[in-house]
Amino acid sequence: MTESSPREELISLALADAARMAALHETAFPSGQAWDARQFENLLNQESVSARALSRGNDILSFVLLQIAVDEAEILTLATALSARRRGCAARLLLGLEPQLVESGVTRWLLDVAEDNAGALKFYQDNGFGIDGRRRDYYQRLEGQRVDAILMSKPMARQVAT
Predict the structure, then answer these.
(1) Which of 23, 55, 28, 27 is nearest to 40 (CA)?
(2) Cβ contacts of 101-107, under 8 Å, gap ≥ 24
(3) How many CB atoms lie within 10 A of CB 56?
(4) Pairing of strands 130-140, 108-114
């Protein structure tokens, strides 16, 4: 009899996972743009911030850090392990979270993404997010260059009672 590989599951991440989140974040973002464990700890200490992940066994495939304000879930950051990229993990993570968020009264996703992050822009647009505007010169790169933030949102999928 062969062992089956662990199934994917949605899990909550906690303060104790800050170092794991920072390590994955470092592989997902260019030098100087990744957050360190202390930044994750500071955010996770806020009552309105939570982290959720798509995992397989002990491996985090993709995680999202969310801040909930009234009826909106703002994506503060989203990162996917290099080995899990282009396999739909981030999309499954967001889609899997929607029923829980809708149940708690959330009606809309919000986020901002750097204008020069073509991959992220495409991902969000492919997953139903629309462009709402921009914040001029919001991000600063290591070289000192400033980059606009593209503001995006998406209504939560409504769950239909059967």
Answers:
(1) 23
(2) 101/68, 101/73, 101/156, 102/156, 102/157, 102/158, 102/159, 103/159, 104/68, 105/70, 105/71, 106/68, 106/71, 106/72, 106/73, 106/156, 107/71, 107/72, 107/155, 107/156
(3) 15
(4) unpaired
Proportion of the chain in helix, strand, coil states, percent, rounded to 5: 30, 40, 30
* Secondary structure E strands in 14-58: 49-56
Q: What is the 3-state secondary structure (H, E, C) of 48-79?
A: CEEEEEEEECCEEEEEEEEEEECCEEEEEEEE
In this structure, how many other beta carbons lie within 10 angstroms of the beta carbon of residue 17?
A: 20
| pLDDT tens digits, one per residue of 127-147 | 999 999 999 999 888 788 899
Beta bridge partners of 126: none
Domains assigned to the chain: 8-155 (3.40.630.30)
Q: Which of 5-9, 109-113, 132-136 has the lowest mean pLDDT?
A: 5-9
Global pTM value: 0.89
CB 152 within 8 A of CB 124: yes
